[in-house]
Design a protein that fits this description.
Chain lengths: 267, 278
């Protein structure tokens, strides 16, 4: 069953077309990766899907969730869907939490908004959520402020907030880019396990091919705002892919294993 | 609380706090007690020098005790400073929100409005209001509050825009928070430090503007003791009795300086970039 269907999505900002006719579908329970170099329109596609593009952007095409058109919905209706059916994890855990609000309050926010939980019930649930995403000492950490947490812990909070209402679709926009390599692996495992446990679909955005294979099966490749290929990890491993994808792969290998003779080495 | 502690470690902060506390104390005391009735005339004891007959700062041509008048005048000053600051705060926040979280065409219009109002001198606004509604403390307070409120609005607008662009506001929107909720829980708390600094500076400007307006005859009525009124009253005798002008003048200068330094110290105490590494 198709959960999220994006058809001919085009985004223009200031006369420039930054996303150009992108179409793909996300099936129920699927974990789909979206790769592309910086500026290829990955993040903008995600923001368009959740309806949070900057005001000056114009969007055409269609974004359907459970068959319901999201583009053009009034903000009030979109707010009911965001966090409840469609949620998002952001790239920068350092800035994605309000520095003045205690962790528990931020964890409880989507529950208070969508489930109408009382203060006390939301607080109890926040402690459960903190425990679920593997935060140490949940009773204490819900009273902490963001600056008292490490980057990895903050990203766990971000994931817990996004998954609090058990959304059908989770969009993760480079959730591990800002983290240490060792922490990256933990966060990826957590994300995969929780998405599986809740039976949610995942759209995982990254420019880092190395992290993809452990999380996703399917893959869409973006370049210059256009979708160049929809493939899967297995096909990638067997060398069947579009020239753009080959280019990304080659760059990734060059960065991982620089060799003196390679003109791309270290770039 | 850490901000208060940081204030106590700066000479400017201590000075500002002492001035503010002194002003509050003088107002409260003058409410219950002054050495003499500040409005009572006493022709037998006119033109007295300081310390004569128990008149600490002397008397003027009608025999008004100058110290009592200064004490009583501090009430007008404090009242104007606080009320004008509150009005400026409300006007500033409302205008800044109207310029930022509304649809773009409304926001652009409000920004234009703010720019036009900023170009308009506060004293001129007060004089126009006084011409229409008559000069009074209320008119002065409203004019000063609105006049400086647009300055607060300009600063607050920039701050709100900066906070609005942060990831945590985007994350809150992605959670399904409404605009009103984002304003209450994210925007206002995060611009509060800047706003507090701005409003303490507004208090200093309000004290100066109130004294100026009253001196010019557009503010507090001459029957109510006030520092601006004292200046207006005594300036005719500047050559003969310079001290009579110096007392209220000094009171205004010290208060304005103190509130300004308090604002500066507050800014340093709340801005992590300027905070001393300790």
């Amino acid at each position: 069953m198709t959960l999220l269907e994006i058809t001919d999505l085009t985004v223009r900002i200031g006369g420039k077309t930054v996303v150009d006719g992108v179409s793909f579908a996300l099936e129920a329970g699927e974990r789909l990766g979206m790769i592309g170099e910086s500026g290829s329109g990955k993040s903008l596609t995600a923001l368009a899907a959740i309806g949070l593009l900057p005001e000056e952007a114009t969007v055409t095409g269609s974004v359907r969730l459970h068959g319901r058109e999201l583009l053009g919905l009034p903000d009030r209706a979109l707010a009911k869907i965001r966090g409840e059916q469609l949620a998002m994890v952001f790239q920068e855990p350092m800035t994605a939490l309000n520095p003045l609000m205690r962790i528990g309050k931020q964890l409880a926010e989507p529950l208070r908004l969508h489930r109408g939980l009382s203060r006390g019930a939301a607080r109890a649930r926040a402690i459960e959520l903190a425990d679920k995403v593997g935060l140490p000492d949940p009773d204490r950490i819900v009273r902490a402020f963001p600056h008292q947490l490490s980057g990895g812990q903050r990203q766990r909070v971000g994931i817990a907030i996004a998954l609090a209402c058990e959304p059908a679709v989770l969009i993760a926009d480079e959730p591990t880019t800002a983290l240490d390599v060792t922490v990256q692996a933990e966060i990826l495992a957590l994300l995969r396990d929780l998405v599986d446990e809740q039976g949610a679909s995942l759209l995982f955005i990254t420019h880092d091919l190395a992290v993809l294979s452990s999380v996703v099966s399917g893959l869409v490749v973006l370049a210059d705002g256009k979708l160049v290929e929809r493939t899967d990890i297995a096909a990638l491993a067997h060398g069947r892919h579009d020239p753009h994808t080959a280019e990304l792969l080659r760059a990734a290998r060059a960065a991982a294993f620089p060799t003196p003779g390679d003109p791309d080495a270290g770039s | 609380m850490t901000v208060l502690r940081a204030l106590w470690h700066k000479p400017t902060g201590i000075f500002g706090m002492v001035v503010l506390l002194g002003l509050v104390l003088a107002s409260v005391v003058s409410w219950m007690w002054t050495p003499f009735d500040p409005t009572a005339t006493d022709p037998d004891h006119a033109w007295l020098l300081p310390f004569a007959n128990g008149h600490l700062l002397g008397t003027d041509r009608l025999g008004h005790d100058q110290f009592s008048q200064l004490l009583a005048g501090s009430r007008e000053t404090l009242l104007t400073a606080i009320l004008a600051m509150l009005i400026a705060g409300v006007v500033g926040i409302l205008l800044a929100l109207a310029a930022t979280v509304t649809p773009r065409w409304i926001g652009a219009t409000v920004v234009q409005l703010i720019d036009i109002l900023i170009a308009f001198p506060v004293l001129l606004l007060a004089m126009i209001l006084a011409a229409v509604y008559g000069g009074s403390t209320t008119t002065a307070v409203v004019a000063i509050g609105i006049g400086f409120g647009v300055n607060v609005a300009r600063v607050a607008r920039g701050e709100i825009n900066a906070v609005r662009g942060t990831d945590y506001v985007l994350a809150a929107q992605a959670c399904g928070a409404s605009t009103g909720r984002i304003v209450r829980r994210h925007l206002l708390p995060n611009i509060a430090p800047t706003l507090i600094v701005q409003l303490s500076l507004t208090m200093a400007l309000a004290v100066l503007a109130e004294a100026a307006l009253t001196y010019l005859g557009y503010g507090t009525s001459p029957n109510t003791p006030s520092w601006g009124g004292m200046l207006a009253e005594q300036q005719a005798y500047l050559a003969a009795r310079p001290l009579l002008v110096i007392w209220p003048g000094l009171a205004v200068v010290v208060t304005v300086l103190g509130l300004n330094l308090l604002g500066d110290a507050l800014r340093e105490a709340t801005d992590p970039r300027l905070r001393d590494v300790s």
